[in-house]
Amino acid sequence: SIPTGPAGPLRFPDNFGWGAATSAYQIEGAAKEDGRGESVWDTFSRVPGRTRNGDTGDVAADHYHRYAEDLDLMRDLGLRSYRFSISWPRIQPDGTGAPNQRGLDFYRRLLDGLHERGIAPMATLFHWDLPQALQDAGGWESRDTAHRFADYADLVFGALGDRVPAWLTINEPKTVVQNGYLTGHHAPGRQDPDAAYLVAHHLQLAHGLAVGALRASGSDSRIGPALNLHPCYPADDSPQAAAAARLYDSYENRLYLDSLLRGSYPEDLLADLGPQSRMVQGVRDGDLAIISAPIDLLAVQYYTPIYVTADGGTERRWTTSEAEWQQIYPQGMYDLLTRVTRDYGPIPLTITENGLPTPDTLAPDDTVHDAGRISFLRDHLTAVHQAIAAGVPLESFHVWSLLDNFEWDAGYDQRWGLVYVDYPTQRRVLKSSATWYRSVITDGGF
Ligand code: GBH
C-alpha cells in the first residue's frame, strides 16, 4: 500500500518528463483536407446511434489549423513532453502505397514547433484511425493489416524519424479488441469474441513488425507499445474470486504484457479460448519472436481498477467519474506500476495517459473551475511518486488530455482536457487544473 509519509512537499526527479497527451482523430478535425483519406472512425461516427449526439471528429478541436496556438499553450504550461498521434489516413489515404506529402508536412511543422519550444515529442503511430480501405480488406482480422502497418511505420520513420526520439506503436490494443470487437462501442462496431482475439494477435504482430522496421532503419530512436492496464482485484476473499480475478487479469493485462515481454501468451488464456479459436489457429511459428522483440520503453495508461466477483462478473467499489466505466482509485496506479516492474523487470516506463472527465463549464469571468481534476491528479501523482520511491523506473507522466476533445462514443459531452475548448468559437481557456499543473512542473512537485 502507499506509505503515508509526513505531510510536506513531494519532489519528483529534476529531469522528470511532465507532459500531456492527445490523439489525431480526437483533436485534429480537417477531416477532408490536404488529401486525408477516410478512417474507420469517419465511417463509424456517421452510423446513427453510434456516438452521443451523432458527434464526429470532422472538426473536433480544429487542431490541424490551430496547432501553432496549441504549441504556445504547451509552452505556457511548461510541458516538457507532448504525446500525440499520427493519422495513418493522412499519410496513406488508402492505407498503402506512396506517402501523401501534405500529411507528412503537417507533422513536420508540428515537430518543428515542439523543437523550437524545447518540448520532447512522443509520437504514437496508431491511435485507432485505421484507413477505411484497409478495414474494407478485412481490417485487423486480416494478418495482412499487420504488414501494411509495418510499411506505414517504415515510411513514417523515414520521413519524420530525425525529429522523433520516442515512438509508440499501437495505442491500447486491448481497447480495439474489447470495444471494437466485443462490445462494439468503438469502430468497427463488431460483437464477435472469436474475431476479437485474432485481432489481438494481429495487433501484437503489427507492433513487433514495426519495432523490427525501426531497428532495420538504423535509427537510434526509442520505441515501445502503449498499453492500458487494469489492476484486477478479487471482489471478496473466496478462492473462487481469486481464481476469477486471475483469469480476468490474463485478458486485461497478461495477454499483452506476456507476449511482449516473455514471448508467450498466457497458458490460462489460451486454455480458456480453446484450441479451435481463431486466435490459437492464427498464431504462426515465429510470431511470438517478432512480438517480443526488445523494446526501449513501455507506456502505461491507467484509469480504473476492476473488481472481479466469484462468478467472473465485475463489481463497483469506488466513486465513478463522469465516465461510468471509471472508478477513482489512486492506489491502483501504485499497484500497477510496482506489479509491472516486479513481474517483468526494470524496463523504463512512461505513463502516457491518466485523467478523468469533469463537468466543466465556462464561468462569466472566463474561468473554468475543475477542482475534481486537481484532486484526481494530485492523488494519482502521489501514488506515482511512491512507486518511483519503491524503485519503479518511471521517466514521465502525461495527463490525458491536453485539450477537451472528441471522446469517441461519448462524443463531446465528456471534457477530459487541462484546457477547455469552447467548441462554437474554438477558443481555448486554461482550466484551474492547467494552472495547477503548471506550478507542479515549475516546482517539480507539490
Ligand atoms: C483512452 O481510452 C484512450 O487512449 C483515449 O483516446 C481516450 O480518450 C481516453 O482513454 C479516455 O477514455 O465499453 O462503454 O464500458 C480509455 C479506454 C475507454 C477502455 C472506455 C474501456 C469502456 C467503455 N477505455 N472503455 S464501455
Automatic annotation (TrEMBL):
Top-level taxonomic group: Bacteria
UniProt source species: Micromonospora arborensis
Binding site for substrate: 26, 127, 171, 303, 400, 407-408
A biological process from GO: cellulose catabolic process
Enzyme class: hydrolase
Reaction catalysis annotation: Hydrolysis of terminal, non-reducing beta-D-glucosyl residues with release of beta-D-glucose
PANTHER family according to UniProt: GLYCOSYL HYDROLASE, LP05116P
Alphabetical list of NCBIfam families matching this protein: BGL (TIGR03356)
SUPFAM superfamilies found in the cross-reference section: (Trans)glycosidases (SSF51445)
Signal peptide: none
Chain residue ranges for the region called Disordered: 36-58
The keyword Hydrolase is assigned to this record: yes
Gene3D superfamilies per record: Glycosidases (3.20.20.80)
E.C. number: 3.2.1.21
Protein name in the entry: Beta-glucosidase
